[in-house]
Amino acid sequence: MTKIKPYKDSDLGKKEQVTKMFDTISGDYDGLNRVISFGIDIKWRKKVVKLVKETNPETILDIATGTGDLAINLAETNATKIIGLDISSGMLEIGKEKIKKKALDSKIDMVLGDSENMPFEDNSFDAITVAFGVRNFETLENGLKEIYRVLKPNGTFVILETSIPTKTPYKQGYKFYTKNILPLIGKLFSKDRSAYKYLCESASVFPYGEALNNILRKIGFINVEDFPQTFGVATIYKSSK
């Protein structure tokens, strides 16, 4: 897999660049995401919550939680503790404010940390989720191995990630949108032009569908399934340990 970085003229590693990028765009992120996805990402997250809810977990870890949208949605489950983990302090600060306003402080903890080296014991969580975060891992397999480590046996792992439509005319429409429209929106509304260019480019080279299913199986996950969303512009992956 080609390693795409946000800032091509920087000597920093991908992890450091991604941290810097999300700290920079944290204030724009929520509003811009609604514009870019036409609000459909809200519907996708609800489907993730439904899949997690079916397993009735007590403890949930939401990795690359960002500003906490999915962690907040997961509060609808019967879980007694939800942890949102992210490498960007800027994103977490916004997430903490949102959680406070919704009076969910006692249920959701926001933790600063690296998804490829997590500060949790083995077999700690009944369910783990990642929404639009796995493609930002420095090394995909390292991140997935860490997730496998901290997930309890029989625990559920759900990924929501961008993918590329394979059928005409959706494939052509997606290519035009990501190449021409999305970077323009990012340029108009965000103070970091490189960020949304990176988000497009990283999505275009990231493995999806059966390619990602096979990587999950290689790590050791079982019962691997994928559910394409909205003509294939995103995919939900469900597996277990």
From TrEMBL:
Domain of life: Bacteria
Pfam families listed in its UniProt record: Ubie_methyltran
Keywords, comma-separated and alphabetical: Menaquinone biosynthesis, Methyltransferase, S-adenosyl-L-methionine, Transferase
NCBIfam families: MenG_MenH_UbiE (TIGR01934), PRK00216.1-5 (NF001244)
PANTHER family documented for this protein: 2-METHOXY-6-POLYPRENYL-1,4-BENZOQUINOL METHYLASE, MITOCHONDRIAL, METHYLTRANSFERASE
Family designation: Belongs to the class I-like SAM-binding methyltransferase superfamily. MenG/UbiE family.
Signal peptide boundaries: none
Stated name of the protein: Demethylmenaquinone methyltransferase
Pathway of action: Quinol/quinone metabolism; menaquinone biosynthesis; menaquinol from 1,4-dihydroxy-2-naphthoate: step 2/2
Positions contributing to S-adenosyl-L-methionine binding: 67, 86, 114-115
Gene3D superfamilies on file: Vaccinia Virus protein VP39 (3.40.50.150)
The EC number(s) this enzyme carries: 2.1.1.163
Function: Methyltransferase required for the conversion of demethylmenaquinol (DMKH2) to menaquinol (MKH2).
Enzyme class: transferase
MF terms (GO), sorted A to Z: 2-methoxy-6-polyprenyl-1,4-benzoquinol methyltransferase activity; demethylmenaquinone methyltransferase activity
Catalytic activity of the protein: a 2-demethylmenaquinol + S-adenosyl-L-methionine = a menaquinol + S-adenosyl-L-homocysteine + H(+)
Keyword Zinc applies: no
Example of a GO biological process term: methylation
